[in-house]
Amino acid sequence: MAYFDAASTESLHPAARDALVAALDGGWADPQRLYGDARRARLLLDQARAKVAVAFGVRPDETFFTSSGTQAVHLAMLGALSARRRTGRHLVVGAVEHSSVLHTAALHEREGGRVTTVGVDRTGRVDPEEFAAALRPDTALACLQSANHEVGTLQPVAEVAEACRAARVPLFVDAAQSAGRAEVPAGWSLLAASAHKWGGPPGVGVLVIRKNTRWRSPLPEDEREGRRVPGFENVPGAVAAAAALEAYAAEMERDGPRLSALVDRIRERVPHLVEDVEVIGDPVRRLPHLVTFSCLYVEGEALLTELDRLGFAVSSGSSCTADTLRPSHVLEAMGVITHGNVRVSLPRGTSATDVDRFLAVLPGAVARLRRTAGVQVSE
């Protein structure tokens, strides 16, 4: 089986596995206590925090561990909106944000807030000028992902951050897809990421709140994680996440160009191999490992199942709603084909042989499904 769904999750990195096993023995105690085992756990947690902070170019005391990337998103947004309520209750989001961002925006709207959604072009990218125009004197927060999770398009974070700075509006960046793979431009105020995306363990997220950013916990106060995140710290998970991020980022610096070249091969070859197909997303300003395409006259779920039978694990349709029949909100916002959609995302170590094998079996898989659906297929 060739695993081509790294955008959903990477397998546990060997560095994370080693760190996790060691930390289960040395980091099990309560890091808030003062006895020896607790001090050792606290040291491990502080070291993990420092490593993650270096990776994001921030201070350790700006970095907090959460139970997931989704929790980090919720805390970042709700905490910023709560702290800036006197400024106003207006929120700006991009149309292709992750569902965790859009669901939080919907909650804010149900509770009396106002939301402006900034559209995207056909590549899935927001226009920085349009985003800047959406900012108002009562805007409490703006949200823009670093890169799209379904099509890989990089967003203009630097330009939007500059506009937000001029308008004195904090910018929240969901960096789940780019963390460890691509540098996030500076200028943001809050950031969220998820460890399992870079080969860390599931159940560990990262929340970054820059100094001088107004933030108030939307949850009952707790003594843990600098009063930012409630609950007992997952020290072994944090240690493993930091070890994986450090190792993964170093690997991607070396191997990223190779993976990007393999994605270029898929982007270039698929339209020649399969009729009535659209390759989606920005061909240049994109993540190095991800490519999405849609095939007319084919159901995405059926194509996913057929490719799985042939030895390829890929995702289809919306990465957030793959178990439903709802069209992807990302593809709808882009104005592209929303059915017959396949997202291929290459994990670390993907071989050119596996990519070539995928390209060899894809045309036949699509043709068989089209024939089954009664579509005329040219031989």
Q: What's a concise summary of this model?
A:
The protein has 379 residues and is an alpha/beta fold.
Work out the number of β strands. Answer: 13
Overall average residue pLDDT: 94
The helix/strand order is EHHEHEHEHEHEEEHHEEHEEHEH
Summed up, the helix count is 11
Largest sheet: spatial strand order: 2-8-7-6-5-3-4
Uncertain regions spanning at least 5 consecutive residues: 318-322
Which CATH class of the largest domain is shown? Answer: Alpha Beta
> What is the CA-atom radius of gyration, in angstroms?
21 Å
Architecture (CATH level 2) name of the largest domain:
3-Layer(aba) Sandwich
Structural class: alpha/beta
Percent in strands:
5-15%
The CATH topology of the largest domain is what?
Aspartate Aminotransferase, domain 2
> Major β-sheet, in short?
7 strands, mixed
End-to-end Cα distance, whole Å, is: 28 Å
Envelope shape: globular
Helical content class: 40-55%
CATH superfamily of the largest domain: Type I PLP-dependent aspartate aminotransferase-like (Major domain)
Catalytic activity: (sulfur carrier)-H + L-cysteine = (sulfur carrier)-SH + L-alanine
Cofactor: pyridoxal 5'-phosphate
Pfam families: Aminotran_5
Protein name: Cysteine desulfurase/sulfurtransferase TusA family protein
Task: Give an account of the 3D structure.
The protein has 379 residues and is α/β, with parallel strands linked by helices. It folds into two domains: 14-247, Type I PLP-dependent aspartate aminotransferase-like (Major domain) (Aspartate Aminotransferase, domain 2), CATH 3.40.640; 255-372, Aspartate Aminotransferase, domain 1 (Alpha-Beta Complex), CATH 3.90.1150.10. 42% of the residues lie in helices and 14% in strands. The protein is built from eleven helices and 13 strands. The strands form three sheets. A seven-stranded mixed beta sheet has the order 2-8-7-6-5-3-4, sandwiched between helices. A four-stranded antiparallel beta sheet has the order 9-10-13-12, covered by helices on one side. Mean pLDDT is 94; it is low at 318-322.
